[in-house]
Write a structure and sequence with these properties.
It is built from seven helices and ten strands. With about 230 residues, the protein is an alpha/beta fold. A six-stranded mixed sheet has the order 6-7-8-3-9-10, sandwiched between helices. The chain has a four-stranded antiparallel sheet with strand order 2-1-4-5, covered by helices on one side. About 40% of the residues are buried. Belongs to the ABC transporter superfamily. Macrolide exporter (TC 3.A.1.122) family.
Length: about 230
């Protein structure tokens, strides 16, 4: 059986900031790979570099040095239009605060990435409905975020991340605003998505949440402290 192809390859990646007269090494010469269908958690104390790493993985920030390849392409060589296309089509984002538009119903929130991608209205409707059904909200398509529970709102955000069939799903503290039972429900959804072949990387500070994944990467002081199965 052949090895799964690489989705992400990072080599000697660094991100440095200057604060006053002090140099802050948010990331310091990191080497890291993710293969297709990886299901990984990134953990670390405050200031360890995990949010910086997530922003670079999501093409929301650029490294000071090093190389980042996404699906074989050097991200540093992409122009602004190419980066915008990658963020919309290749990466699905799930945030702790959901980031849904309150005046739009679930269906309209989910179809937003498809509008930016130029997908026809008929296909947008079909794909958005299917994405909501995948997360168990097929009967809530006409509800607005304010009419949903926290767990249901996060499911909508996951459906929006899925709708463009991205190469990778990045989730930043996706259970941070949810109670324990609801958090487990959300992680069950990620587990099913992973079983279906999706590549998922999430940031969490909760050990219980990280144990749902198949790989835990721990950062400390901008460097990888460990990378192992839970």
């Amino acid at each position: 059986m052949s090895e799964r192809p690489f989705i992400i390859r990072i080599s000697s990646l660094s991100k440095h900031y200057t604060m006053g007269d002090q140099l802050v090494k948010a990331l310091d010469k990191i080497d890291l790979d993710f293969r297709e269908n990886d299901y990984a958690a990134i953990m670390g104390p405050s200031g360890s570099g995990k949010s910086t790493l997530m922003n670079i993985l999501g093409c929301l920030d650029t490294p000071t040095a090093g190389r980042y390849e996404l699906n074989g392409q050097n991200v540093a060589e992409m122009d602004d239009d190419e980066l915008a296309r990658v963020r919309n089509r290749e990466i699905g984002f799930v945030f702790q605060t959901f980031n849904l538009l309150p005046r739009l119903d679930c269906l309209r929130n989910v179809e937003l990435p498809l509008i930016y991608a130029g997908v026809s209205p008929e296909e947008r409707l079909e794909r958005s409905r299917k994405a909501l059904e995948e997360v168990g909200l097929g009967d809530r398509i006409d509800h607005k975020p304010g009419e949903l529970s926290g767990g249901q709102t996060q499911r909508v955000a996951i459906a929006r991340a899925l709708v463009n069939h991205p190469s990778i799903i990045l989730a930043d503290e996706p259970t941070g605003n949810l109670d324990t039972a609801t958090s487990r429900d959300i992680m069950d959804i990620f587990g099913r998505l992973s079983d279906a072949g999706n590549t998922i990387i999430l940031i969490t500070h909760e050990e219980e949440i990280a144990r749902f994944t198949r790989r835990i990467i721990r950062l400390r002081d901008g460097r990888i402290e460990s990378d192992s199965a839970p």
